[in-house]
Amino acid sequence: MREIVLDTETTGFEYKQGHRLVEIGCVELVNHMPTGNVYHQYINPERDMPEGAFRVHGLSEEYLRDFPIFKEIAQEFIDFIAGDTLVIHNAGFDVPFLNWELKQHGLAEMENNVVDTLIMARKQFPGSPANLDALCRRFTIDNSNREKHGALLDSELLAEVYLELIGGRQPGLMLAKDAGDGDDVSKVERVFREPRPHQASAEELAAHAAFLEQIKDPIWLRDGGETT
């Protein structure tokens, strides 16, 4: 099972107000475990960088100017996520931004299944902070490198948080694909044992009769019944 943990950075909160994507980070999971395969891309937003957004992620207009625009990286991004499930923290923010960018360049919107870890965290820990930093603290995940938001770093941290939200890493419970085919069962050496005798011995019958004699008023002797 392949899943993609995804995060984005933008110039602001609303694409309807002209804000744009400036960074995409993705981490591949297979059977809930990171494979080391990632997708990371800075994007030239073709506009200025508001001070508030710069304080969040530290990406300036000057720094991003030499990177490709979204249209130039869109297909590579689509190929990476393919049709697999996306794991996103607050998907209601990232998904509309991505779909708007895709639509602006004549590309189809994403139809991937989406798992929103923000919703998961709020259900599991109602009333508690559910932002990424708070969840890292809760699960003792080292986020000391997170001085500012970064799409790839945040995706890597979110991958660890996601695994904890679904029950923690339990690789011992997973069936290894290379553990062997079912045919290997026939190759297991079986030790032959003689069948056990089922007929009671004379000593066992005598011991059983003596035991029955000790029982007072047995129900099987009522109404003229006899032992068998």
What is shown here, in short?
The chain is α/β, with parallel strands linked by helices and 228 residues long. It has helices at residues 51-57, 61-64, 70-81, 91-104, 117-124, 132-138, 151-165, 202-213; strands spanning 2-10, 21-30, 33-42, 85-88, 114-116.
Structural commentary:
Residues 170-196 have low confidence and may be disordered. With 228 residues, this protein is α/β, with parallel strands linked by helices. The chain has a single domain, classed as Ribonuclease H-like superfamily/Ribonuclease H (Nucleotidyltransferase, domain 5, 2-Layer Sandwich). The chain starts with a strand and ends in a 15-residue tail after the last helix. The protein is built from eight helices and five strands, in the order βββαααβαβαααα.
Structural class designation: alpha/beta
Total number of beta strands: 5
* Overall morphology: elongated
CATH class: Alpha Beta
The portion of residues assigned to helices is 25-40%
| Biggest sheet character | 5 strands, mixed
